[in-house]
Amino acid sequence: MTEKQTRTKLVHAGTRRSQYGEVAEAIFLTQGFVYDTAEAAEARFIEAGADEFIYARYGNPTVRMFEDRIAAVEGTEDAFATASGMAAVNGALASMLRAGDHVVSARALFGSCLYILEEVLTRYGVEVTFVDGTDLAAWRAAIRPDTKAVFFETISNPTLEVIDIEAVAKLAHAVGALVIVDNVFATPIFSRAKDQGADVIVYSATKHIDGQGRCLGGVICGTRDFVRKVAEPYLKHTGGSLSPFNAWVMLKSMETLDLRVRAQAETAQALAETLEGHAALEKVIFPHLPSHPQYDLARAQMAAGGTVLALDIKGGKAGAFRFLNALEIVTISNNLGDAKSIATHPATTTHQRLTPEQRAGLGITDGLIRLSVGLEDAGDLLRDLQTALAAV
Ligand SMILES: *Cc1c(COP(=O)(O)O)cnc(C)c1O
Predict the structure, then answer these.
(1) What CATH number matches the domain at 6-254, 3.40.50.720, 1.10.287.950, 3.40.50.2000, 3.40.640.10?
(2) Could you read off the pLDDT of 14-34 as tens digits, one per residue?
(3) Which residue among 182, 183, 336 has the greatest number of ligand 1 atoms within 8 angstroms of its CB, and so is best to mutate?
(4) Distance from Cα 157 to the centre of ligand 1, integer Å
(5) What is the pTM of this model?
(6) 73 CB-contact burial (10 Å; exposed 0-12 / middle 13-18 / buried 19+)
(7) For ligand 1, which residues put their CB under 6 angstroms from it?
């Protein structure tokens, strides 16, 4: 059979039918599974077959369908589904690292990712070196012969720095280090992270994969060996597994993932182009705007600029708050990738924990707004944003 295209995989890959032949994927809302005999229980604990399950923390048919579907789309051998994006980030790192190991990480990270690298791993004796992720010389200087892993967000939150996956992977692989990427902003649709050299690709499924703001979830994609022999034992024993109900929501959402994300990215591109140069804006940051510092890399690495833009509003916090409070369609919240457009003020919310110096170092100004573009009509969104900018 020829390899199917992404849209086909998003609808069909990983489907497992029960004896009833249901069309829509079934939710196996069960934590346990019955064995016909004591001998069968013993055998399953020695080695479970592909259609044999033991306990939902270890695996569940609905969860397995989601894992197989996302692995098919991402192009990795396997995937392990987790209770949230953070369970996936923590699971990918903590499962493979031990005291004395060295990790190099980009500094521009989602706050909870920074917490894991800066506060959790170091507490267990892992040494972490932070670098400016866009500076290849800094990666080269920080990666050592004993470096076990590198970690970065392929597009950083919220300032949308683009990291050269291929170049960093080449440096990491030269010393045998694993390349672990948080790929949320690239989405499974625009990602080619595996081909570009990422070994382990992590998503918060809470974002575009659900895409409708309902469930937390996450996933770790990688080789079968990494997923089943490294990540799974850690996650199934420490409790980070995805619930079957949430897996079912994610499975159904994946059917429309390509359509949704492409529509959102198209609107995001149009809004970025139209708003750039507006009198109330210091700047518009969007990876596929020619003014983006890594425009050429962003074009080479991603088929679209993504669904999120950053607007630096004139007048600092006061200007940003006047803008937020004047929005009618766009909601003030902190999810992203949702069907509803969402605006966030990182300096006072998601990145409030950082010192002003740390925020300045990451380019998070007091006027910065992260705008996640939803599925509303592009013209309506543009008018909403322009009206709010007039209020600045
Ligand atoms: C949201 C997010 C996470 C965490 O995901 P949760 O599902 O909220 O745990 C991790 N990394 C990035 C880049 C994110 O945007």
Answers:
(1) 3.40.640.10
(2) 999 999 999 999 999 999 999
(3) 182
(4) 9
(5) 0.96
(6) buried
(7) 84-86, 89, 110, 112-113, 153, 157, 182, 184, 204, 206-207, 216, 218
